Amino acid sequence: MPTWVKVLLVVVVLVLVLSVGAGVALYFAARTYVPGLVESGKQTYNEGVEYGRRTDNEGCLNEAAARHARGEGFTDLLKTNLFLRACLEKSRPTPGFCDEVPRQTEFMKAVAWQQRQCQRYGLSPEKQCGQLFQQVQQFCEQHHDNSGGSGSGPAGLPTPPPPATPPTPATPAPSRLR
């Protein structure tokens, strides 16, 4: 058997062994850590709901920004986003809260707005603070799209009027046959 075939065979076997080992390790890690993460997520969601019932939209954002500043690592980032979203859904409206918030599809405006908000709240872009304000964008888009009469859209623009109902065609008079 040529040397290159032996080397190729060893590499293939090594890749298979490493893949199986990684799969087994991932399975045991998931069994160990996922239940705790799910429970922690439920607890954070409930905290957001309870906090939201006692405050307004701005109060939710202020608390989430404070939590984000104290947060350490990816898990805390996810928990803060979950807290903010749950809180915003249950909180009282803050007048003008969504007026300057760009739509998520306005990419350049959204990035610039997120950066300004990070600076305003003293949050570091290295800690992915933009994701926190993406929650605000999602909330404002959903809130304004479903409010049916808030008077202004997510970027402070007036909401378009409802489509006009088409006129009903006049029914022709019955013709008389003679």
Relative helix content: 55-70%
Number of strands: 0
N→C terminal distance: 104 Å
Give the biggest sheet: none
State the low-pLDDT regions, or none: 146-168
Average pLDDT reading = 82
Q: How does the helix and strand content classify structurally?
A: mainly alpha
| Shape by Cα distribution | elongated
Order of helices and strands: HHHHH
Number of helical elements = 5
Strand content: under 5%
Q: Cα-atom Rg, whole angstroms?
A: 27 Å
Key features of this structure:
single chain, 178 residues, mainly alpha, 5 helices, 65% helix
Account of the 3D structure:
With 178 residues, the chain is mostly helical. Helix content is 65%, strand content 0%. The protein contains 5 helices and no strands. The chain is elongated, with a radius of gyration of 27 Å. The N and C termini lie far apart (104 Å). Residues 146-168 have low confidence and may be disordered.
Task: Sum this structure up briefly.
By secondary structure, this protein is an all-alpha fold. Helices cover 65% and strands 0% of the residues. It is elongated and about 80 Å long.
Layout of helices and strands, plus pairs?
Layout (H helix, E strand, L loop, with lengths): L2 H51 L3 H14 L2 H18 L16 H14 L8 H19 L31
Helix pairs in contact: 1-3, 2-3, 3-5, 4-5
